[in-house]
């Protein structure tokens, strides 16, 4: 499964701690992240993460491109709801794309934990069918 991690500045430590807690679940998946978040996770874990640009420099849009192509299976995006973000339109576009494509998206640790536990149980097998039978692609 393709999983992306995104965290606003004041949520990066929380993201790192979350990924450490579930490192054994994530190690069997292909991981992506925005720049600084991915660097911080890799410094504290043994995980290998494909890093895109930082969010304000287009990282959210790079992950959004994978979502638009239905190549992302799960996103954990720890947002800071109390701080205005200069790239808010990019964030909203990513959230909208997740809704359009039906990509599970957690924006807080409580929801992220529910999704990761489901991932660990194998409850995301339906995503394999999505990859196998992409709408609009001739088979």
From TrEMBL:
SUPFAM superfamilies: Methylglyoxal synthase-like (SSF52335). One of its GO terms (biological process) is methylglyoxal biosynthetic process. PROSITE patterns: METHYLGLYOXAL_SYNTH, MGS. The active site is at 60 (proton donor/acceptor). It is an enzyme of class 4 (lyase). It catalyses: dihydroxyacetone phosphate = methylglyoxal + phosphate. The keyword Lyase applies. One of its GO terms (cellular component) is cytosol. Keywords: Lyase. It comes from the Bacteria. Substrate binds at residues 8, 12, 34-37, 54-55, 87. Its EC number is 4.2.3.3. GO terms for molecular function: methylglyoxal synthase activity. Belongs to the methylglyoxal synthase family. Catalyzes the formation of methylglyoxal from dihydroxyacetone phosphate. NCBIfam families: MGSA (TIGR00160), PRK05234.1 (NF003559). This is Methylglyoxal synthase. It comes from Paenibacillus glucanolyticus. The gene is mgsA.
